[in-house]
Amino acid sequence: MSPDLRGAMRNFATGVCVATTYADRGGVRRHDAVTLNSLTSVSLDPPLVSLSLHRDSQFLTDLLETKKWAVSILDCEAEPLARRLAKGRDDRAEAVNALPATPGPKTGALVLDAHSGLECVLWDSFDIGDHTMVIGEVVSTGVRDLQPPLLFLHGSFQHLAAATTSKE
């Protein structure tokens, strides 16, 4: 019997973010965005973060082709957006076109009007199990007013009742 990793990890609260990238094909740029909870800070010097994406993801294919992406960390008011972008690529397309976002100055990937955001360029990638972990060098950051974060716990989105909003 294999361990119930999904069941165990349901008890680990994670933040929720939206990753964006794009593909240039036939002279047309097509943006894509996906909800993730696999963002991890890897290193401060150099500034590196990681994402884990399913290997058969078209989002991953586009990211590995452009080698650029952005990550927007969501606050508790962004749950409806997180739900829309947690669907399949075809279902996300309309939501992506209506995103409150602008192309980042360093990468061209969409940066949402969100809690905070990062622009990244590919540092390395590793196939691990059924996922690919991408490591990105953070080339730009932005932080907006701090609101309680959107969390993922017990298989669903959660709102933190009170969050520290001091800027240290």
From TrEMBL:
GO molecular function, one term: FMN binding
Alphabetically ordered keywords of this record: Oxidoreductase
InterPro entries the record matches: Flavin_Rdtase-like_dom, NADH-dep_flavin_reductase, Split_barrel_FMN-bd
Residue ranges annotated for the Flavin reductase like domain, each copy included: 9-159
Coiled coil stretches, renumbered: none
Pfam family, one: Flavin_Reduct
Protein name (Swiss-Prot/TrEMBL): Flavin reductase (DIM6/NTAB) family NADH-FMN oxidoreductase RutF
